[in-house]
């Protein structure tokens, strides 16, 4: 919690975000361009930027919006996309990722942003920031374009842990509630539990147990439990937060992402097909750009690690400046609302014993 | 195996498909329109049509292409979408679905087509047709638009059973191989096993075991095992057949479907936005229709039940005439190639003992 000598520059009256400048596919220049974009739009953000000082200094110096809101922390090593998480944990103390998490650990910042290796970031975050009291499995919350007023749904777990039991799923519901409320202003989030259908013969036993646990906590935690939902509800408008284990969540997200990419490619091909269709694509340009922005993964790529002492925003490895800036905006929002503390309080107050679990129609529980 | 008196009309020199005319959301008129479409394109198909004779006769009489290739089997009851599978099994003997499966059971046809209640159809198919010798869990194989030359990938299981152990997944690989080869002419299918990533800390233990089992059978069964794949490979071109349990498969398919629908809706809205974009949509009409056809779920909606004595093609409940006709085309192809028998032979010859399972580099196995 000690203030570093160079901390004032980033921190004076600002909400400070810790940024890992290295390790993304696009390199540090893209990260610096991204934070410059954010600094231009929002003068209340300060940055602690972690990476090779000699590389970062000239990049920052070129951006006038960064002149008075960035502190650089030298870190000689970089976690590559190919590094094995277990190796990074043992040998990664000099990396920019480690350094970026250290700023959250020591209280200089409450939120960290990185475009680096997801597995390494998750493992390192869990090791260095540690789980919140009572949390067994941290989760990654991922945004997905949907029909909802806020334009997307939140899914968790997006792949932090391949397993989740009923209690974990219940905690995911609590974490998702806090996240939707503090990150995106959804006052009373609607929570859905992912399943394959509502017929009596379907569904795994841990899901039935999770159903009861989540129901029992809906009132106290002030969310709406809409019950079981299906894959099609991820882009739908029946709920705001979808709960599932990290294996299923990861497969669903990647299938959706791949399908969206395929359609975009086929659409481009369709418009190149004939002179008439090429003319049409010119006329439709602004409409298509609007559509692209709406479903662009870069706009919604802020996967967020929940359940730790501090919050970590994982941006796509291939994020460009727009993507980095979107991740920083989300990080700022979460830091400003004191999300981490609220989440911790929420989890601590949850009712866990399954014996007391009742349906949501039961009015007796608080 | 006895020839029915009215069987000749459908069967004379034709490949006979058994069709459940009732139970789809669109009613029997749509099913009859669909088979008429198929009959017009392919004079070598014969149909045994199951449902209320009084309703079906006038519908068939209106279609000239159906005049000499349809036999109607009266069945007074209909399985509705709301009926619970367990109820249908006990009380469904007079339904068109039961009757349609009966034609496969008694050898009049080798493939059955239905648009009805999936759960009931699956349960009834398993009960009446019974599993192939050695098969523990039948599976639903579903087609999904992809970058592959054939235009789609096959995923199984799409939701027949929420669980699958290593041996089931290996049998899915064998069934998927036979299906891709006989249904779509993919001579040496590339098989992928769905997982969340290739990093060492990821993946469930049954998937690692399945990996070894599938590897061990690749040579004998003459498929290419490409190893673990991810959700994004479902619409991709890294493999032709993707293997997973029915829970994960169902969630992935419905997420992809929902995402495609969302994009289509947003695209429509984008083109309505301004006079210029409306003009553009007129000019682009044929291009967009081409795209629509390419990714239209009606073109690829033939979910097929594999692993039974006989094959059942499940069409979307909401399938229109085009969808029904696509399902009939697939059924015809599977019937003509003697798919069921080949699948049975394939499964019987598989090497099962896990102790012998070796990596694909091992040249000792046949």
Task: Tag the structure with descriptive keywords.
eleven-stranded mixed sheet; homodimer; cytoplasm (chains A, B); 366 residues
Describe the structure in your own words.
The structure is a homodimer of 366-residue chains. Chain A is built from 13 helices and eleven strands. The first copy, chain A, has an eleven-stranded mixed β-sheet, sandwiched between helices. In chain A, β10 and β11 form a beta hairpin. In chain A, α2 crosses α3, α4 packs across α6 and α7 packs across α8. Chain A starts with 6 loop residues before the first helix and ends in an 18-residue tail after the last helix. The N terminus and C terminus of chain A are likely disordered.
> Using DSSP, what is the number of strands of chain A?
11
How big a fraction of the residues of chain A is strand? 15-25%
Largest interface, chains and sizes: A-B, 66 and 67 residues
* Rg of chain A (C-alpha, Å): 21 Å
pLDDT below 50 for ≥5 consecutive residues: which ranges of chain A?
1-5, 354-366
What is the averaged pLDDT score of chain A?
86
| H/E element order of chain A | HEHEHEHHEHEEHEHEEHHHEEHH
Shape of chain A: globular
Helix count from the secondary structure assignment of chain A? 13
Task: Describe the largest sheet of chain A.
Answer: 11 strands, mixed
Oligomeric state of this protein: homodimer
Provide the structure class of chain A. Answer: alpha/beta
What percent of residues of chain A adopt helix (DSSP H or I)?
Answer: 40-55%
Distance between the termini of chain A: 37 Å
Order the strands across the largest sheet of chain A as they lie in space. Answer: 3-2-1-4-11-10-5-6-9-7-8
